[in-house]
Sequence to fold (174 residues):
Amino acid sequence: MKVILTKDYEKLGNVGDIVNVKDGFAKNFLIPNNIAVLATPGNIKQMEIVKKSVIKKEAKSIEEAKKIAEIIDGLELRIKVSSSLEGKLYGSITNKDIAEKILDEKKVEIDKKKIELEDHIKEVGVYEVPIKLFKDVKAIIKLIVESDDYIAKDLITAKEEVNKENETGKNADK
Fold:
């Protein structure tokens, strides 16, 4: 069945594209969710008009996304959190927390859905977080999660030093 996409759908195409899909997928998912309409001659003409306006709007969005990317790309954010002596967080850092921190630091509002965390951050450490601002516009920020407990920091630093000593000792034995 041929349908015209009314919204961008990552696995099928962009607004205005005519795609061939299985009947059930079109009737049970795409059309009821207003992602697509049937590819009739009238709908095709209507979508050509809509597509032209979408292209103009998209050009503005790409420019805005590039400006935001320039501001936040390479940004280094520090978040202090409560953690156990082993560096495990009490709770976790989510997309929302990162978006709020960017807003505080750079006064730029980022939709939390655009922050591509594989999983919530649950340990102290340094993380690279990709942010997909628009289709081809991405920025990467460096997130440093620190413990606000000085004792935990000292223990983590001491553990790292012991680990380094153990590694150098193992290498010397070889």
Summary: Residues 46 and 154 are 65 Å apart (CA to CA). The helical segments are 23-30, 41-72, 95-106, 150-173. The chain has four helices and eight strands. The two ends are 67 Å apart (CA to CA).
